[in-house]
Amino acid sequence: MLHGFTGSPADFVPLAAAGPHDESLKFFAPALGGHFAEPASASFEEEVERLAVIAPDATKLFGYSLGGRLALGLIARHPGRFERAVVVSAHPGLHRESERARRRLHDQCWTRLLRERGTSVFVSEWEQQALWRTQRVLPKAVRAEKRRTRNLHDAEGLARSLESVGLGQMPDLRPQLARSRCMVDFLAGSEDRQFLSLAREMQRLLPRARLGVAAHAGHDLVLERPGFCSAYLGQRDCR
Q1: Which among 1, 3, 36 has a CA at the least distance from the CA of 220?
Q2: Distance of alpha carbon 203 from alpha carbon 116, whole angstroms
C-alpha cells in the first residue's frame, strides 16, 4: 500500500476498515522516501527497487498518486512478480524529455518554498491547488487531520522527494506497461479530469486492465471515497 506525496501509511486505515475485501489479505504500508524518517532515494528507479526489496513477498499493489506512479514502476520493472494492482489517480510518466524538464522547473518552485519557508507555509500553498477543490465539502475534522499529517513532514525530506521521484524524474513507463500481464484496476474521480483521461488511456494500453470511476469525487479517492477504493481490494480478476 503506497501513499501519496505528503501522505502517510496511516492514510490506508479507513480502507482496511471499510471492506468488503479478501479477509486473507495482509496489508503492508511503508513510508515512501522523503516522508517521516525514511530518507529519500537518489532516483525514481532506486525508490522502486527499494520498495521491491523491503516487501519481497508482496504480489498485490495498491498505490495512490505518487504511490500509484511507484506501483506502475514496480509493475514495469518486475513484470512477472505482481498478480494484481489497484492504481489510483496516477500518471504513467511524461512522454518527452522536454516535458520532464519543464516539470522539474515547476517543482523547483515547491522545493524552494519548502527550504526557504518551511513545511507549514508549503502545506498552506499546496492545499490551494485546484486538484483539491472537491475536498472542500468534506467535514472540517477530516480536512484538519489531513493537514495535520502533511505538517508532520520535514521540509527537506519533502523537497528531496520531489527532486528524486517527482513526475519530472520519472521515465515514461508506457512501453513496459503495454507488455505487462498484471491485472490492474485504474481508479479516478469523475471531477479529476486529467487523471481520469490518463486512467482511460491506461485501460486501453494494458492488456488486462479496467477502469473504475468514482462519481462526484476528485483526486484523493483514498480520502474522499475509502469505501469505493476498498471494494477493489482482494478482487481476483478484472475480466
Answers
A1: 3
A2: 41
Residue identified by cell 462519481 is 215
d(CA 124, CA 220): 17
Could you give the domains of the chain?
9-230 (3.40.50.1820)
pTM above 0.90, yes or no: yes
What was the pLDDT predicted at 237?
A: 45
Beta strands in 89-133 (DSSP E): none
Q: What is the rounded distance in angstroms from the CA atom of residue 91 to the CA atom of residue 85?
A: 15
Task: At 158, list the grid cell.
Answer: 519533502
d(CA 213, CA 200): 10
N-to-C CA span, the chain: 23
Residues in the chain with pLDDT values less than 70: 18-23, 234-239
Between CA 43 and CA 49, with CA 48 as vertex, the angle to 5 degrees is 100
Please give the grid coordinates belonging to residue 130. Answer: 485546484
